[in-house]
Amino acid sequence: MADMDVFTGRLDPDMCVVTAAAGGDRAGCLVGFASQCSLRPVRFAVWLSELNHTFRVARTARVLAVHLLARDQLPLAEIFGGTTGDDGVDKFRTVRWRHGYGGAVVLEDAEAWFVGRVLSYTGGGDHIGFVLDPVEWGGRAEPGGPLLRLGDTRGITPGHPVD
């Protein structure tokens, strides 16, 4: 489907880190497929690759946390985008985090974040959409700069297979 690249290659969405905790395991990954999907009530959808360790933890989690990063937080994005929990990597060992609503894993240094209760799932090819009901949120009082976008992360080699 290389012809679709004429459209998708021009997109430069905000990136976010999605974290999940369930069954004594925690996981997180860098996500480029995410968007608000309803105004009233507010709903947000994040799409996770079925190949991803975070997906396997998230599918049994009651809540997920979604974090926006600033461009100068690329090293944090590299932790969650360039390594995988499948290799026994503890991505949370070197980052500041705390438990949020429902046991969610909240990254303390994120520009902005929210915890959402998982309402439903939807298929979409090789990713599964998690529709979230925001129940807790926060962020820096003063924005730290432009948000991290896909174009800023192109140098990160994915921690899990993309095919």
Structure notes:
This protein is mostly beta strands and 163 residues long. It has a single domain, classed as Pnp Oxidase, Chain A (Roll), CATH 2.30.110.10. The chain is 12% helix and 39% strand. The strands form two sheets. Strands 2-1-5-8-9-4-3 form a seven-stranded antiparallel sheet. A two-stranded antiparallel sheet has the order 6-7. The radius of gyration is 15 Å and the shape is globular. It starts with a helix and ends in a 24-residue tail after the last strand. The model has no long low-confidence stretch (mean pLDDT 92).
Radius of gyration: 15 Å
Q: Strand order within the widest sheet?
A: 2-1-5-8-9-4-3
Terminal CA distance? 14 Å
Number of strand elements: 9
- Could you say which structural class the secondary elements and strand pairing correspond to? mainly beta
Uncertain segments: none
> Secondary-structure element sequence?
HEEEEHEHEEEE
Q: Give the overall average pLDDT.
A: 92
* Total number of domains: 1
Strand content: 35-45%
Q: CATH fold name, please?
A: Pnp Oxidase, Chain A
CATH architecture: Roll
Name of the CATH class: Mainly Beta
Q: What is the percent of helical residues? A: 10-25%
In the CATH hierarchy, what is the superfamily?
Electron Transport, Fmn-binding Protein, Chain A
Overall geometry: globular
Tally the helices: what do you get? 3
Largest sheet, if any? 7 strands, antiparallel
